[in-house]
Amino acid sequence: MLETKDIGYWYDHQANALYRNVNLQFAEGKTYAIVGSSGSGKTTFLSLIAGLDKPSEGEVLYNGRAINKIGLTNYRNKYVSIVFQSYNLFTYMSALDNVLTAMAITNSQHKGDKEYAIDMLSKIGIDQDMAKKNVQRLSGGQQQRVAIVRAMCCDAKVVVADEPTGNLDETNTRETIELFQELAHAQGKCVIIVTHEPEVAKMCDETIELKNKEFTTKSAIKA
Ligand SMILES: Nc1ncnc2c1ncn2[C@@H]1O[C@H](COP(=O)(O)OP(=O)(O)OP(=O)(O)O)[C@@H](O)[C@H]1O
């Protein structure tokens, strides 16, 4: 579904490239963990496949089409959901309005379907009363789950997440990754997570390690 073709990236000079000739494939229905030391370029890689930045060389392909041909803004709006460590919810809105707004902005097939949004939120333990309160009244773990439900309610097939469990305790981390698994396994999405936590990587279907400017796919390690 998503493929990098000989991509390379450098901020200033080619000689200082973070990596070059990266050829990776990401399938729908699977979760991927990208691991590697700090500063190796994981976040940068995520921004390339999410269409937030362009590779210095090579192409990112979505279902065989170069994303710059699709148009980066068009690609991001239609095909990608992004989950951040800092949740990136609209802080002045309720959880319900956050989900409804995302469905409206992305023109989801569930656009305007309040009952669907309420039902999805209830699946992560946010009842109707709580769903209508300002999102800042929820705990960090709950806010991150709202951010994931928001991705679930949108049609985008690619979900990228940058350290989504960075602010969460062990229990919330596990629940969050289980939701990502559901997103991939039940909804057929392609979920790509940057993480420095080995427990998170273990729960994903595949781990890709970025080390010495090379990406290596590790065999699936099941928790
Ligand atoms: N705008 C920029 N201009 C120049 N260099 C940058 C810029 N943004 C990031 N870098 C450098 O590029 C390298 C890769 O950064 P990136 O954030 O992708 O790494 P990372 O693997 O995600 O790190 P971490 O795990 O610490 O978040 C780092 O050395 C960083 O200092």
TrEMBL record:
PROSITE patterns: ABC_TRANSPORTER_1 (PS00211), ABC_TRANSPORTER_2 (PS50893)
Family under the similarity heading: Belongs to the ABC transporter superfamily.
Family annotation (Pfam families): ABC_tran
Transmembrane segments: none
Residue intervals of the ABC transporter domain: 2-223
Organism: Ligilactobacillus ubinensis
Record GO terms (molecular function): ATP binding; ATP hydrolysis activity; transmembrane transporter activity
UniProt xrefs under PANTHER family: IMPORT ATP-BINDING PROTEIN (PTHR24220), LIPOPROTEIN-RELEASING SYSTEM ATP-BINDING PROTEIN LOLD (PTHR24220:SF689)
InterPro entries assigned: AAA+_ATPase, ABC_transporter-like_ATP-bd, ABC_transporter-like_CS, ABC_transpr_LolD-like, MacB-like_ATP-bd, P-loop_NTPase
Biological function: Part of the ABC transporter FtsEX involved in cellular division. Has ATPase activity. Essential for cell division and viability.
Descriptive protein name: ABC transporter ATP-binding protein
Gene Ontology CC entries for this record: plasma membrane
Reactions catalysed according to its record: ATP + H2O = ADP + phosphate + H(+)
Keywords on record: ATP-binding, Nucleotide-binding, Transport
